[in-house]
Design brief:
Number of strands: 5
Bound molecules: heme C
Number of domains: 3
Largest sheet: 5 strands, antiparallel
Structural class: alpha+beta
CATH superfamily of the largest domain: TT1751-like domain
CATH topology of the largest domain: TATA-Binding Protein
Shape: elongated
Helix content: 40-55%
Strand order of the largest sheet: 1-5-4-3-2
Number of helices: 17
Oligomer: single chain
Radius of gyration: 25 Å
Length: about 375
């Protein structure tokens, strides 16, 4: 007689996957974002500590850059105001990885700004809020010819974020999105103008003071400012469509057949099968694995590379995996909903990749279940 003291395998798997998601996202927020520490404990006013907890994981301990762009460069510090730094921290860059730090007080943000200033000997510059008037139509043409190659055809930024070591050396720093509402709310016209005139030495951002005339620079600034009117179109893909943490479909086949079908469907969808194993293999003693819970790992290396370049944090839920479990003579195919995970990361590009991943999961499951 079969003994079922293994409890319910399907809910076991669910718990396992849920626990995994919880643990992974917990560490993601703790290690990668470092947000938890002083929002939970006493209010910290020390800029150095706040910077280490909230920023260093992405921008480097001394502002040398990483997932986030460098903050220590003299060319950057010379041309940005404290007001810009303050607002950038407060508003973040929605959809571009850089989080908004609503949970920090003004005092705390000012303390972080002071810490960033210690990375360089530059004096903080102050800008007037005077609007720059220019010919938007001309600006659009100039943008296409001088800026779009890096900042994207519509100013929506380069692919990926921060400093990405996998891309060519001369463009290791990804151009930020200039259409981003967080950027537009933080940067004054004068700041954008100075940045365009003098560039950022030490990054790919060139100086245009010798290449363009002042009226052309002003036209560019007016064009960049005009992006503000599209701010309503910023959408959060992940939060809109991903309600369920898990995709769960009942299989029309036996466990063995289902695994076989998924293997075939995975390969049919141009993925490489990495391995098939029992879910608790390597966790329990050899030979005592639960044979009613099988996990299938698969991957498309090109897509993996693309995804990693967009956001290294996808390592948390890649390679792709589907689990097949048998419970009371019913077989289920279960996967983590990637879109649900990506909604935690403030990266619109990652949302798109994960929406694709979700579609792939669904089509593989459908194919396997025909
Ligand atoms: C999860 C990673 C991440 C964290 C955490 C993070 N940043 Fe960023 N930050 C980025 C990225 C990526 C960008 C570039 C945005 C883009 O590409 O549009 C950025 C941009 C910035 C900019 C704009 C730089 C410029 O060129 O104008 C500033 C300033 C900044 N971050 C400061 C901070 C500070 C201060 C903290 C901590 C309070 C912080 N960031 C936390 C990823 C991060
Ligand atoms: C060769 C690539 C390249 C070109 C061409 C280029 N940029 Fe940049 N730009 C960058 C990079 C990379 C950064 C980020 C620099 C850093 O890390 O501080 C940047 C930063 C900026 C910033 C600051 C944005 C922020 O979030 O801090 C502005 C404004 C800007 N560029 C405007 C322009 C304009 C206007 C043009 C065209 C006239 C232009 N750029 C052309 C690569 C480029």
């Amino acid at each position: 007689m079969k003994k079922y003291f293994n409890r319910d395998p399907a809910s076991n798997t669910l718990q396992y996957e849920m626990a995994r998601i919880i643990v992974l996202t917990f560490f993601a927020s703790l290690i990668v974002l470092g947000l938890v520490i002083d929002s939970v404990f006493a209010v910290n006013k020390n800029g150095d500590t706040l910077y280490q907890n909230h920023c260093s994981a992405c921008h480097g301990e001394r502002g040398s850059g990483g997932v986030g762009i460098p903050l220590a460069l003299k060319s950057f510090q010379d041309k940005v105001s404290n007001d810009y730094l303050f607002k950038t921290i407060r508003f973040g860059r929605p959809g571009r990885v850089m989080p908004a730090f609503d949970q920090l007080s003004d005092t705390q943000i000012n303390a972080i700004v002071k810490t960033i200033r210690k990375f360089s000997t530059s004096k903080a510059i102050k800008y007037s809020n005077k609007t720059i008037v220019g010919n938007i139509k001309l600006g659009k043409i100039l943008f296409k010819n001088n800026c779009a190659s890096c900042h994207g055809p519509n100013g929506s930024g380069g692919k990926g974020t921060g400093v990405t070591f996998s891309r060519p050396r001369n463009s290791a720093i990804v151009a930020p999105a200039l259409t981003n509402i967080g950027f537009l709310k933080s940067a004054s016209d004068q700041l954008i103008k100075q940045t365009t005139l003098f560039g950022r030495k030490g990054t790919p951002m060139p100086a245009f003071s010798k290449k363009l005339k002042i009226n052309e620079i002003d036209a560019l600034i007016a064009y960049i400012r005009s992006f503000e009117k599209y701010k309503g179109t910023i959408k959060k893909v992940g939060s809109k469509t991903a309600q369920d943490a898990i995709i769960k479909v009942k299989s029309n086949y036996s466990l063995k057949e289902t695994v076989k079908n998924i293997k075939r469907a995975v390969q049919g969808a141009n993925f490489k099968l990495i391995r098939v194993q029992y879910l608790n293999q390597g966790i329990v003693k050899k030979g005592t694995e639960n044979k009613k819970q099988v996990i299938i790992y698969f991957c498309n290396f090109l897509q993996l590379n693309t995804a990693l370049a967009i956001d290294p944090r996808v390592g948390l839920f890649l390679p792709c995996r589907l689990t097949v479990v048998e419970q009371a003579n019913k077989v289920y195919i279960i996967g983590i909903n990637p879109l649900r995970l990506s909604s935690l990361f403030n990266n619109e590009e990652l949302d798109n990749v994960c929406a694709e991943m979700r579609k792939t999961y669904l089509s593989i499951i459908e194919e396997a279940n025909l």
